[in-house]
Prior knowledge:
CATH architecture of the largest domain: 3-Layer(aba) Sandwich
Radius of gyration: 21 Å
Bound molecules: pyridoxal-5'-phosphate
Amino acid sequence: MTAESEIIYLDNNSSTRVDPEVLEEMMPFLxxxxxxxxxxxxxxxxxxxxxxRAHERVAALLGCEPNEVVFTSGGTESDNTALHSALQMxxxxxxxxxxxxxxxxxxxxxxxxxxxxxxxxxxxxxxQGHLDLAEMEAAIRPDxxxxxxxWANNETGVIFPLARIxxxxxxxxxxxxxxAVQAVGKMPIDLTKLPVHFLSLSGHKLHACKGVGALYVxxxxxxxxxxxxxxxxxxRRAGTDNVASIVGLGKAAELAIATLEEENTRVRTLRDRxxxxxxxxxxxxxxxxxxxxxxxxxxxxxxxxxDAQAILLKLDREGVCCSLxxxxxxxxxxxxxxxxAMHLTxxxxxxxxxxxxxxxxxxxxxxxxxxxxxxxxxxxxxLAVM
Length: 386
Ligand SMILES: *Cc1c(COP(=O)(O)O)cnc(C)c1O
């Protein structure tokens, strides 16, 4: 295994390092404080108090009430639960509107829904990764149960105009769900000002651990759980609480509130210097997604004429972690559905890589990567002409 000290981690949209302060708050709940929070003894009550505090901290990050936060096993479960609930609550409505660039947690749920004989309208994006809001509005039908649109894209970082989309949904009287997994902790969120019924977030994208997430559920709307059983989470998500992880997510939310502004400025500076240097040093490098409407930490670049897999392999050997703008399904490399949805050529998509910065990246690391990457690309381009 590669030691952490040897790597430069530029894959924060894929997962993040657990913040040491998060781990510290989690530890008692993995060691001494093992009581069941639903137990009727003081030992359990202590644990219960800690999970309640986590509700408060996540609610503070989102601008909602603590009882509007339902802890889940992650972004995927939150996305599935939101869609499931919306569809269960309006059984006469069998239509969903979503976009072509959603995470598979939403798109594959919709695909399964279609296989059950229901219908889905997938709204397209343009070359910059933006939606046509008139087209989105026109896609909402009388039998539409729910509209599901992500806040920020995990591959390109492109941000959708959530306030306007939520207003359209409110005017049309349909449920609105947003997958905000990449937005939470990277941009300010205030649900008191935004008519959203459901919002998904995930712990491990936010310096908490993997396997925990949350779903915001508007207290004014009805709800149908996906998991049924015990009365946990106000009857909205059965199963004994994943206490340590929930406590950790609470701490991560608190840290996100405290550091949001400063950290985003610092991360944006790193990302911008990264891009500016590569664009100056190399020919034929282009940014994928609207550079003016992106998360501050994400850089999706096409290195024209070079196979991204070859770059990834070389960078990996140099200890640089990033992501392919494509996914490997059943052994064959497919350009990412997001880049394809943006009408990029297969060639451009196949030469694209995603770099995502985060809390623990440093200037010194940046100095190294802006030397490693141009050198690597030049070498690969030389090989290609030989
Ligand atoms: C990572 C991610 C998810 C899935 O979250 P998990 O906690 O890994 O299940 C969903 N949506 C987006 C946009 C993501 O980036």
